[in-house]
Amino acid sequence: MKLLIINGPNLNLLGTREPDTYGKESFEDYFSKLQFKFRETELSYYQSNIEGELIDRLQQADMEFDGVILNAAAYTHTSIGIGDAVKAIGIPVVEVHISNTFSREQFRHKSYISANAKGIIIGFGLSSYDLAINSFLIK
Q1: Annotated binding site for substrate, which residues?
Q2: N or C terminus of the chain: which is more exposed, having fewer CB within 10 Å?
Q3: What is the rounded distance in angstroms from the CA atom of residue 60 to the CA atom of residue 134?
């Protein structure tokens, strides 16, 4: 199984950005733990702050991976283009959010991704990524 984790804007700042909301661990450190924990799964990681680059990577993933774990961050609530890309590709996408978006500002309650995602995992901190990986491994 080959899975790609795609993180959107500002998630490159994990570990320093709003640690009360997002924790104190960088995603790179956490990703190393995921690779160790899920040794039999080939995990790759991509992060960009640029909407078009996220769309390009989703389209490329369709030919390279069995699934995508997508945390589009703020673009979740604003990007019809990312939502359309999720709909257009032929592999499943699990939408992930570190925080509980429904306990935050009202504008974070809308997702342009959810309707076309295999599933949604929200609010379990970085463990949301573990849960998403497991969702691909459960038969």
Answers
A1: 71, 77, 84, 98-99, 108
A2: C
A3: 23
Instruction: Return the half-sphere exposure (C-beta side, CA atoms, 13 A cut-off) of residue 14.
Output: 22
Parse the chain into domains and list their residue ranges: 2-137
Which tokens hold the place of 138?
Answer: 């459960």
How does pLDDT run along the chain (139 residues), one tens digit per residue? 999 999 999 999 887 877 777 777 899 999 999 999 999 999 999 999 999 999 999 999 999 999 999 999 999 999 999 999 999 999 999 999 998 876 677 766 789 999 999 999 999 999 999 999 999 998 6
Annotated binding residues, written as ranges, equal 71, 77, 84, 98-99, 108
List, by residue number, the catalytic residues.
22, 97
The CATH number assigned to the domain with range 2-137 reads 3.40.50.9100
Pairing label, strands 2-7, 119-122: unpaired
DSSP H helical segments within the chain, as ranges?
Answer: 19-22, 27-37, 51-64, 80-88, 127-137
